[in-house]
Amino acid sequence: MEKVLKCILLDDELPSLRFLKMLCEQIPGLEVVRAFNDPCVLLNEYKSLDFDFCILDIEMPQLNGFDIAKELENYPIVFSTAYKQYASDAFDINAVDYMRKPISLSRLQQAILKVEQVINNRQTDISPFAQFNTNKGKAILYFNQIDYIQIAEVDSRDKTVFLSGGSSILLKNISFDKLLSILPEQDFIRISKKEIIALKIVKFFSADIITSNILDEQESAILFSLGESYKKSFLEKFV
Question: Which residues form the Response regulatory domain (predicted)?
Fold first, then answer.
């Protein structure tokens, strides 16, 4: 693999989780970002993690693998389970693969190759623009026009997009997760609970502050705060 693939794992049975993690660590070019044994913890933490796909168990207490897959709908999903009866349901939601336990290294490698193909296909299909619902109707936004995006002041469900040249536009009822699934991953990064920025605007950065190349009305550089939970993924963009 040319690019390191990053995954998160979920299995409520610790022996199975440890074994799956061990297998993953034997595949060159594959990195396990986090291994979870509690689906609720995964839901609370995944937004701050930088990963490409997920390997999920299905039968778990509280939430099952399909519940998690719905939340992670923008990520390729591989299911890992001891049960065969869920296979049709898994492929109904476009799972990349469905592995039966006990999993062998060669079977896992097959699944990873499928994931890699899905991700590569997505990257080649990237459009330079997307259509959004705004307060003035539907609008086409070219990604290279966007400088940064913030939660709207009046309604947090809406997002204000600040464009090159100083203008802005209000997107209606769209989440940051949905935006990140649309925006080119290599060009945008979430830096806090309230903001996404385009990498092109970064001029300097420290542990907590990003200095942009955009000037405010007083001709001073606009500064952005880098949230603690987002530092790792931000810094990895510049490695």
Answer: 6-116
Task: Name the nearest CA neighbour of 50 among 147, 178, 143, 180.
Answer: 180
pTM: 0.55
Domain with 63 in it: 5-124
Q: Is the dihedral of CA 7, 118, 128, 93 positive or negative?
A: negative
Do 105 and 26 belong to one domain? Answer: yes
Burial 58-67 (b: 16+ CB within 10 A, else e): bebeebbbbe
Domain count along the chain: 2
Q: What is the mean pLDDT of each run of 10 residues along the chain (239 residues)?
A: 83 96 96 95 90 94 90 90 84 86 94 90 73 92 96 94 94 92 90 96 94 93 95 85
Query: Which of 77, 107, 124 marks a domain boundary?
Result: 124
Residue with tokens 């049975």: 13
- Contact status, residue 78 vs residue 53, Cβ threshold 8 Å: yes
Write the CATH number for 61. Answer: 3.40.50.2300
